[in-house]
Amino acid sequence: MDRTRRLRQSAVMRNMVRENHVRVDDLIYPMFVIEGENIVQPVESMPGICQYSLDRMAEELERIEKARISAILLFGIPQHKDEVGSGAYDEHGIVQEAIRRIKKDYPNLLVIADVCLCEYTSHGHCGLVRDGVILNDETLPLLAASAVSYAKAGADIVAPSDMMDKRVQVIREALDQAGFVYTPIMSYSAKFASGYYGPFRDAAHSAPGFGDRRTYQMDPANGREAMREVEEDIAEGADLIIAKPAMAYMDIIKDIRMNCNIPIVAYNVSGEYAMVKAASANGWIDEKKIVMENLVGMKRAGADMIITYHALEAAKWIREEENEGGR
Ligand code: PBG
Ligand code: ZN
Known about the structure:
The structure is a single chain. The chain is α/β, with parallel strands linked by helices. The protein has helices at residues 11-16, 57-66, 94-105, 140-153, 167-177, 198-204, 224-236, 250-259, 270-281, 287-301, 311-324; strands spanning 27-34, 40-42, 50-52, 71-77, 110-115, 129-130, 133-134, 157-160, 186-191, 240-244, 264-268, 305-308. Strands 1, 2, 3, 4, 5, 8, 9, 10, 11 and 12 form a ten-stranded mixed sheet that branches. The structure holds ligand PBG and zinc ion. The site of zinc ion has 5 residues, from loops. Zinc ion binds next to loops.
């Protein structure tokens, strides 16, 4: 009879046979930059997360450097919004300016720019709107212009999160034409219309002013369709694929892993973060245990990288365990 407990006897042995690991290099930390001065505004539904104006970013960037986090994902909050989201592709927009500063002071920090219109449009939708309809093809040139302007500012990777059809193709063409042949596209391919984005929309001031995102983001009930999205994006030129949210969609991550060889990024979203934070603040769960279990679950499902608001704390925990030589 097989006794699987033989390999669980000691910390050294468990450590040796451990199949999956969360490395600090796997973590991508989201950051919210806001127009204005002297702002460090905590996001109420996301304890520990703040919006930073450019003149106050340094304190967060120092924490990121100290934690040895290698990559950040930038979201911008402009002072003025309009129908066409011009802040997204303004050469002096908040994200463009943030990228320039960050790359100047922290040249080795990998900067990923989220590409979408919803933070910049007065109606809060991810694309242009006419007669209550979110337009697809009319939105594409604006997304392409945003991606190119982020690349020009120094972004290392662009990450379209809008879910318009064909945007990866249009962005790839625009980047190539502008000479950014080597700027990778990290595409939010399997992005579901999820209730888990609630806290993010507080953080990014990007809640839709009318209706919802269900005509462009995916139906949570659909797994096969997620694979179609992924295949499309790979064919259009995506270099990395994001699946989002993560925890209620682990099967999607696994499906992508089983069917393609492209690097996969799991997005551990704002609502997932908020739930863990709320429960641990109440003393109902052990935060470190739960966070590390969630993150390794994403790796086990097949993610290569994880975008997570827990990154700063997780990085600290990972280093501590390394120093202790595992448990
Ligand atoms: C914007 C965008 C969203 C998120 C990332 N990019 C919100 C949305 O689609 O409404 C969600 C991130 C999170 O919840 O942490 N397109
Ligand atoms: Zn959007």
